[in-house]
Specification:
The protein has a domain of 100 residues: Beta Polymerase, domain 2, CATH 3.30.460.10. It contains 4 helices and 4 strands; from the N terminus they run αββαβαβα.
Length: 146
Amino acid sequence: MSKVTAGFQDKLNKLTAFLEKDTDILLGYLFGSQATDKAGPLSDVDIAVLLKSTSKKELFAKRLVLLREFTKIFAANDIDLVILNEAPIALKYNILKNSKPLYIFDENLHFQLVQETISQYLDFKPVLEYHYKSLQKRIEDDQYAN
């Protein structure tokens, strides 16, 4: 199990400072192997943000800006950025369940996002499980490509 190195912590501190300054960012999270101390030498950096913007065009433009900035901060191209505004519910649930908050503009907003995500995920979970079981059966029956 890998622990956060001093160098990586410095980069996280720079990332947090950036998130705090950007007025379009409401919430920021580190998730994936870096957040669960399971990172290896080839691990990427997984970051999720909730933005004020809601239009697809604004979200896309902001994604490009954030990827550029995060790439500079981490001096790496292996950045996985999820915009929570448009993330599928299962992904959003897993991010919030297994992440480390880096920046929370408003605790109430964070709580509301977690509460709504859990509620939506639990409503959706039976459908998701049905599809997973159906897919598993098709794979086992060698009918996946048909």
